[in-house]
UniProtKB/TrEMBL annotation:
This is 2-hydroxyacyl-CoA dehydratase. InterPro entries: FldB/FldC_alpha/beta. PANTHER family: 2-HYDROXYGLUTARYL-COA DEHYDRATASE, D-COMPONENT-RELATED, SUBUNIT OF OXYGEN-SENSITIVE 2-HYDROXYISOCAPROYL-COA DEHYDRATASE. GO terms for molecular function: iron-sulfur cluster binding; metal ion binding.
Length: 192
């Protein structure tokens, strides 16, 4: 019973945090209402804050429930998630200003290669993600983030202002913190 009360208190804390970060979500929605162009992205390694700071609206690509067209692009043993994501891209790429991939697995790399062949009118970028945690890998990742920023700036035709980036980083980190809290509560409650 004590654990249940603690979870309720934590849920109340999350509610308050969500109310405090409501501006983040309203800002993202207002970007879309103002017809800010969409940039599609797949993986949680993708820094949404760079997309938002560049005056774009990030659109997470989750995939389609039915895979029809995508089957003809990949081998039968190709990742079903990536096939369903490709299915989404085939039907939605006209609505995207660009697509950001991450080099997080071999399948995602193949998806990026496929997009460069078949979706030539939609610019794409692949963010290399380091596999190790070391000073050199941090420098490597920073360099890749700088490249991604330049990619976004080239799309928009304007520089991302540092202050705007700092604001979006703060808000996105708060969103991540809330999602982590929610996930922890979910798994604790599943043990009840």
């Amino acid at each position: 019973m004590m654990q249940h009360c603690k979870n309720i208190d934590t849920l109340d804390t999350i509610k308050n945090d969500i109310n405090n970060t409501e501006s983040f979500f309203k800002n993202t929605l207002s970007l879309r209402k103002n017809n800010k162009p969409l940039i599609g992205w797949f993986c949680t390694y993708t820094p949404e804050e760079l997309i938002i700071a560049g005056s774009f609206t990030p659109k997470r690509i989750f995939g389609s429930k039915k895979i029809i067209k995508a089957e003809s692009y990949f081998p039968i043993n190709f990742c079903p998630y990536l096939k369903s994501s490709w299915e989404s891209l085939l039907s939605d790429s006209d609505n995207l200003e660009a697509i950001i991939f991450t080099n997080s697995c071999d399948g995602m790399r193949r998806l990026y290669d496929t997009a460069n062949i078949y979706l030539k009118d939609t610019p794409s970028y692949i963010l290399d993600v380091p596999r190790l945690k070391s000073e050199s890998s941090i420098n490597f990742f920073k360099s890749n983030l700088d490249d991604m920023q330049r990619f976004i700036e080239n799309l928009s035709g304007k520089k991302i202002k540092r202050k705007k980036l700092e604001e979006t980083v703060k808000l996105a980190n708060n969103k991540r913190r809330l999602l982590k809290k929610f996930s922890e509560i979910f798994f604790k409650m599943s043990d009840l």
